[in-house]
Amino acid sequence: MTDPRPAPVRLRTQAEVDTAFAKATHPDTIARMAVPLLCQVLGVRPGRADAMRLLHGHLSALGDPDAAARAAEFVARAELDHPVLRRAQAAIEARRPEAAAAELRAFVEEHPEDPVALRLIASAALQAGQSQEATTFLRRALEIAPDYIDARRLLVDALLNHGQFAAALAELDRLIAVDPATFEYRAVKAATLKRMRRTDEALALYDTLVAERPRSADLLVDQANALRAAGRGGEAADAYRRAVEAAPRSGRAWLSLADMKSVRLGEDDIAAMQDALVADDLPARERTALHFALGGALEGAGRHRDAFAQYAIANAFQRGAEPYDAAALTGHVARSEALVRATANPPEMQPAGADTPIFVLGMPRSGSTLVEQVLAAHPGIEATEELPYLRAIANDIARAGNYPQSLAKLSPDVLAKVRARYLDQARAHRKSSGLFVDKAPANWQHLPLIAAAFPDARIIDARRDPLDCGFSNWTQRFGRGNEFAYGLASIGHYIRHYQTLMAAVDAAWPGRVHRVMHEALVADPEAEVRRLLDYVGVPFDPACLSPHANTTPAQSASSEQVRRPINAEGIGRHKPFNPWLGPLKQALGMQGA
């Protein structure tokens, strides 16, 4: 009996799929020749209803009623031909993942081996921020249809969103192996390599991609970002310039160029950005980036009132796209503070071992990248980047409810699994064993989790003058998250809550957290570096006084600044804008605001 389910797939590229379908539908192709071709097509595109209909017809003509019936069932459920799947697809396109999931749950339970339905419910989960759940559905779909290209490509997105870069890279390599010419797969691979700090490999791949598409502004910006992370600032500036020339209305290209401290944008650049903003059809994202870039250019030119106005417009646009939930943070900090104060036995810092993390946390734009590079200059310490893994683990724990109070009920075995999961994922970013830096500023929100699962961890609070830090956040468009940063009052609210939790930790767990004040580090580097290394538990090394000589890739917005000797640049940045910072000062509780 012929099985209408896809046979083992030999097709690899979309061109081969199209060729096989054309052969199957050719008038001279007899049914017995068409059946295996159609099965191969469906192995790559399980939801292709036209191929399934043809397969059903051929199986019926060959006198195989059972197989034809099973094919008919697949036809009835083919992508967009079944009303449930069609409604789910429409909900996903409208970015209503809850509605899509509601449509699909019963369907998937009834048809657990339908790869199209599994891909759709994974899409809904991914839109809802449930990357781990999406991964589970997609891996199941690929067990059923191993060469289902759409499912594997979506799996890459799910893995990247969940911070599983090594696993995502493996899936990308599978896609590239079957279709080496596909530009998208290689571009995503280059970006993934950069995030894994495999910068040389990323740059080699970017060279190939740019040679193929020398006028792609987005690709040139991606290449420049990698060059900048590698400390090749001059080449990065040239690539940003080429991106602007290729796409004069690209807000992303202009903003990237404006963010470079070694580049001073002139009046011609300011005029070019103003001209670009005149266009009515400019996408909102590009418009927002252009306002941020124009603000930076005007600030560099000393036109502070005009610069502030541009920053205000940019932040208003971004705030509309990424609203800040102040009440959620207030509640979380209150619960975390209560948990910290109620800790019966303050967690003592254990000796460092082969896999001890150093969490550098606090506010963005606080000097944390400089602290990271100071540490990474030590031969016994390795930098990684702003790892997403602790936050992902916290989110998974929070789904069970009552986070962070639930941490007090986690058994030692569960906490050991938390630690093992984090360390396993972090290894993708490491080249050696030993102390390593995780510089994700928002990890301050998960201090109780760090204390419970990582008793050997070193915790460093990077601090900067709140007005300088707050204003610097307001002038920065972040890639994702940091919704608080698009309003002066919300920035002050966020800083106050961060300081509140840190004060509770200082009181309940004295000495557990080491604080580095940026201004003090700049004023007396050797004294502050010695204090820092003593806390970490490694001997002083003079290389830590010259972090600019460190070749470790730096991924943050401060990557260029840390390539220069420790300096006072940025201290007092807010002062020319002081007349307009009332909302920030008020939110910080400053007198006379």
Strand residue percentage? under 5%
Helix content: 55-70%
Query: Which consecutive residue ranges, at least 5 long each, have pLDDT under 50?
Result: 1-9
Give the neighbour order of strands across the main sheet: 2-3-1-4-5
Q: What is the number of E strands?
A: 5
Mean pLDDT equals: 89
Cα Rg: 27 Å
Helical stretch tally: 28
Shape: globular
* Structure class: mainly alpha
Q: Major sheet, described briefly?
A: 5 strands, parallel
Structural features, described:
- By secondary structure, this protein is mainly α.
- The chain has 28 helices and five strands.
- Strands 2-3-1-4-5 form a five-stranded parallel beta sheet, with helices on both faces.
- Helix 10 runs antiparallel to helix 11 and helix 17 packs antiparallel against helix 18.
- The chain is globular, with a radius of gyration of 27 Å.
- The N terminus is likely disordered.
Topology, pairings included?
Blueprint: H1 14-24, H2 31-44, H3 49-61, H4 65-76, H5 83-93, H6 97-110, H7 115-127, H8 131-144, H9 149-161, H10 165-178, H11 183-195, H12 199-212, H13 217-229, H14 233-246, H15 251-258, H16 267-278, H17 284-300, H18 304-321, H19 326-341, E1 357-362, H20 368-376, E2 381-383, H21 389-399, H22 412-426, E3 435-438, H23 447-453, E4 458-463, H24 466-474, H25 488-508, E5 513-517, H26 518-523, H27 525-536, H28 582-588
Parallel strand pairs: 1-3, 1-4, 2-3, 4-5
Helix pairs in contact: 1-2, 2-3, 3-4, 5-6, 5-7, 6-7, 7-8, 7-9, 8-9, 9-10, 10-11, 11-12, 12-13, 13-14, 14-15, 15-17, 16-17, 17-18, 19-25, 24-25, 25-28
